[in-house]
Amino acid sequence: MGAAPAEFDEVAGTIRLRLGEGLAGWVARYGEATAVENKWEDSRYRYIPALRGEEFQSMASVPLRRPAGVVGVLNVHSRQPQFFSEEDVARLGEVASLLAGIVENAVLYDRLATREADLERSAAGMIELQELDRRRIAADIHDGISQRLVSTYYHLQAARTLSSDEAVTRQLEAAESLVSDALGEARRAIVGLRPVVLDDLGLGAALTSLATSLGGPAEVEVDLDDGCRAAPHVETALYRIAQEALQNVVKHAGARHVAVRLHNEGDTVELVVTDDGVGYDTVVTGSPDSYGLTGMRERAALVGAQLQLRSSPGGGTAVIVRAPSAAVSALPPEKRAVSGSGRASGDPPPSERNPAPSSPSTPPGGGSSG
């Protein structure tokens, strides 16, 4: 730490000395205060042009001591030679003792902030790499399995048209139905692996799409703040948590009403998924959806979010997530934008960009997959 007038503010933090280098480095290494009557005659002194040392003759240098060791050095310069007495050095030592705690706290705070930033970048990178894997798998399903299913469907359809045997025709129709169901499942898997609407329109639209496609007898209510956005990896984590929560509703809750809410609260985004289903005892770790809850907690922890689960037998379930809205993406745009098959990550497979209506020549499982 260098004590300097405001005119030196512009060079603050730009000058580095190795431990033991210069008078400040010597004091930092040995933890001893020193007063130099004429610094130009002291071999320990190092001239630094930016600090205009030629304007000063004498100096005192005292360590900032803490229990863990020296955390800094306080330098005081004078234009007069032989300016600092032993009493002056002692008084400067008292000032240094007061400053040492402040400096140590500042250093620790800076280290903590750096570590938190590193952790956030690591979490963002992990989530984005997971999503890249999902996009690659979705592309593989589309370009491989889906195409073969479509081809099989058309071959079965052609065979049925040519068949004059009623029993064979019925079997071909049954096979067409099975292939169509498989194609529909493949397309749902593609959408689940990477919903295009999340890339194109953001979290709110993606949650709306997810909730309205829930299926089953439950009535779904969606309540979203307009323009509620967060960092990309935070939105992805929130979407996946909502996806898992809604899947648990379908599989286990037997709910009649489901609500999905997304709101901004200052620099925090809050996601709430509630249902009026059967609920369960949260103390019972062997609940049927415990694996999904573990995944939700892990996703929340990765983005620094707080996940709260409320449920009781017969009392429904509420999943509440509060996540920081501001964060920085960990991957460069060119890596975030390209999927495993070379398409832009925001682009859906051709079958989902231009779905065709079902017709005698279109697989009932969805639009054309070409």
Structural descriptors:
2 domains; Beta-Lactamase; 9 helices; three-stranded antiparallel beta sheet; 370 residues
Question: What's the layout of helices and strands?
Answer:
Elements: H1 22-30, E1 34-36, E2 58-66, E3 69-78, H2 86-162, H3 166-193, H4 196-201, H5 203-212, E4 219-224, H6 232-253, E5 257-265, E6 268-275, H7 290-302, E7 306-311, E8 317-324, H8 333-336, H9 350-353
Parallel strand pairs: 4-5
Antiparallel strand pairs: 1-2, 2-3, 5-6, 6-8, 7-8
Helix pairs in contact: 2-3, 2-6, 5-6, 6-7
Describe the structure.
The protein has 370 residues and is of the alpha+beta class. It has two domains: 6-84, Beta-Lactamase; 122-347, Heat Shock Protein 90 (2-Layer Sandwich). 47% of the residues lie in helices and 16% in strands. It contains nine helices and eight strands. The strands form two sheets. The protein has a five-stranded mixed β-sheet with strand order 4-5-6-8-7, covered by helices on one side. A hairpin with a 2-residue loop joins strand 5 and strand 6 (268-275). It is elongated and about 115 Å long. The protein starts with 21 loop residues before the first helix and ends in a 17-residue tail after the last helix. Mean pLDDT is 76; it is low at 327-361.
User: H/E element string?
Assistant: HEEEHHHHEHEEHEEHH
CATH superfamily of the largest domain: Histidine kinase-like ATPase, C-terminal domain
Please report which band the strand proportion falls in: under 5%, 5-15%, 15-25%, 25-35%, 35-45% or over 45%. Answer: 15-25%
Uncertain segments of ≥5 residues (pLDDT<50)? 327-361
